Amino acid sequence: MFAFGSNGAKKHLSSMAYSIRFYSTAPVSSRADILVEFMVNSLGFSTKEAISTSSKVTRLKVRNYEPHLLVDVFDEMGLNKPQIKTLVSSSPELLFCSVEKNLKPKINVLQQLGLSGTDLVTFIKKSDFLTRGLHTTIKPNLDYLKLLLGSHDSVARVVKREPRLLSYNLPKVIPPNISLLQNLGFSQADIETIFNRHPRYLLNNPVCLERVVHQAENVFHIPRESRMFLHGIEALVSLDDSKLERKLDIFRSFGWSDSDICLMVRKHPYCLTSSEDKIRITLKFFMNELGYEPSYLASHAPLLKYSLEKRVIPRNEIFKFLKENQLIRGKLSLYTVVSSTELEFQKKYLLPFQEKMPELYDIYIKLQAKEKS
């Protein structure tokens, strides 16, 4: 898989000059300069970028490892120069890893999971996978996941969704959380659903997970049998107490009662995962500009999660235009308009009026572009 062809051999020979100079008896400062030169000439770094990146490397007491071999391996895998540069920028220590003993076996593991190209770059960027021991961490984790999930495809799917999984000691971290959920009455199917949707949630301290289950059931009164219960856990597990309280205080500052907030969470728990700024801006728009009451927004909670710029504001303008020009009749709410898919929205609220108002579609597209800019 990693055998070099004639092109690889030429690249290997052409970079030997760097290798010889780098591993000479030159002082560390000179080797650092040579590393910068290598990054500029071979990886497309600017001098400033190369100096900044190389300064993060603490292992200039180099063994018999050659940076150009790393580039050759990634090149043979089909990664382009910008992708290789991205990897080295995020993990410059890669330049000093053993290609044969360290890098290739780990890359093979990722390829067996179906990762390649951009997906491979993204995976490595999001994890410290390449710094973990193959036999002490990576393979034991994969074996445990296979035992837990039952198939190679399931393991691959979960690992792609959460690259950091392979950086933990999974056989030690996950079982206490599974036992906790089982003791709280969760079925095996529920636990598998949680893990498949958001694997990192079972990496939390069991005390944190127990707190979140208590909040969902006893603070926000989400019924255990509700399909929103698991979503509530998924939303709350990302919030510590202080962050959660700050967000709740924002709702209260707009006149929301605790019962309004609980209703919103039961309808759409992910409203709590929006940033504090987004919560403020969204509430200002719906309440101050459009005049909606907390009770209405709480019972139509998905409104609060849609993008104002890309979806709500452009569709609201079209909705107002159609009503003002009496092009639609009957009771039609903004919630219905906003919650429609893009295809449904255009089919119902743009295309039927194309002959009478041919400019309507252009207005909509311009509004979207304006809000994005």
Automatic annotation (TrEMBL):
Family from the record: Belongs to the mTERF family.
Q: Which UniProt keywords apply?
A: Transcription, Transcription regulation, Transcription termination, Transit peptide
Q: From its record, what is one biological process in GO terms?
A: DNA-templated transcription termination
Q: Under which name does UniProt file this protein?
A: Uncharacterized protein
Q: Which domain of life is it from?
A: Eukaryota
Please indicate if the UniProt record lists Transit peptide as a keyword: yes
Q: Please name the InterPro entries in this protein's record.
A: MTERF, MTERF_sf
A GO molecular-function annotation: nucleic acid binding
